[in-house]
Design brief:
With 305 residues, this protein is of the alpha+beta class. It contains ten helices and 14 strands.
């Protein structure tokens, strides 16, 4: 492969000619896919990746708003050099930057092994698209080790993964503010194990969880409730029914430099700031104010310990 090979994110309005040239050569001319299928009118809103060699466009791919990866193409003369893998990796990184929890694609049947090697799993039966046999495949986006700012975080996923990541990287403190401590976001093994490890790390470790409604936690059971019962010295679970400053938001803070936030009126406008002391401090101050007015709910206690 040439040393002058690049793979980069681009916008349709800026690189339409280059992207179109690669697609036309691969899909329309080589594979006989109708142009109306190859160019479906969804490109303006999609995120695109373009590969070039010595300034010449040789490969492309796109990611649509619903998490679909498609229009993956590499010119015939440049295949077998790892360009397809690099394009796919760039699209997966873009999906993570967009806070997507899962991506999917319609793979041509001859390419299923390529996508399986990248963590995709087949779903359902084979079908025809553009005159060619395809299989739907999908994979989860993993946020382990991710430490960049994200806006538009969807709830409960990938909010759940990002909460676990904050817990895994905490040095001493985790504070969780959640009206009902929703099972979909907080009752999972990854978070429970990360918090358990933090709680057992030393006497200065402290995990505080504040809810406004304890009914579903007690009635259905919850991993974090059980953790608070097992480790009551370092895991505190309390309840505050209402407070004028608590407007339904859900917040996870790590130490004094990491925060994950979801407003009370939205499931997809949250943000993740794993390296912001200023933002974290603001949310910690609210948590401390609410915590001062909270109390332990007698239903959180267990007589069978």
């Amino acid at each position: 492969m040439s040393n002058n090979t690049g793979v980069r994110q681009v916008k349709w309005r800026d690189d339409e000619n280059a992207l179109s040239a690669v697609r036309t050569a691969v899909f329309v001319q080589e594979q006989g896919v109708p142009a109306a299928v190859t160019f479906d009118g969804k490109d303006d809103e999609a995120l695109h990746v373009l590969a070039d060699v010595d300034g010449q466009p040789v490969g492309c791919g796109r990611l649509t708003l619903d998490g679909k990866i498609g229009r993956m193409a590499v010119l015939k003369a440049y295949r077998g050099q790892g360009l397809g893998k690099r394009i796919l990796e760039a699209l997966l990184l873009a999906a993570r930057d967009q806070a997507m929890s899962r991506v999917y694609l319609h793979a041509q049947t001859h390419a299923t092994d390529f996508y399986a090697a990248a963590g995709f799993s087949a779903e359902g039966d084979q079908f025809e698209e553009g005159g060619l046999p395809h299989v739907k495949m999908s994979r989860t986006i993993v946020y382990t080790g991710f430490n960049q700012f994200i806006t538009g975080v969807h709830y409960p996923r990938p909010f759940d993964q990002l909460a676990a990541e904050l817990a895994r990287t905490a040095s001493r403190h985790i504070c969780i503010l959640s009206p009902q401590l929703d099972h979909a976001a907080f009752d999972n093994r990854e978070l429970s194990e990360a918090l358990s490890g933090l709680a057992r790390r030393g006497r200065q470790s402290m995990i505080r969880i504040l809810v406004s409604d304890s009914r579903s936690i007690v009635q259905r059971g919850h991993r974090l409730l059980e953790l608070a019962r097992r480790l009551p010295t370092s895991v505190k679970l309390q309840k505050l029914a209402e407070h004028p400053d608590w407007k339904g938001q859900t917040v996870v803070t790590r130490d004094r430099d990491g925060v994950l936030y979801k407003p009370g009126d939205s499931d997809h406008k949250g943000f993740y700031e794993p390296d912001s002391r200023a933002s974290t401090q603001k949310h910690l101050e609210l948590f401390e104010e609410l915590w001062r007015h909270s109390a332990t709910d007698i239903e959180f206690r267990s007589l069978s310990l």
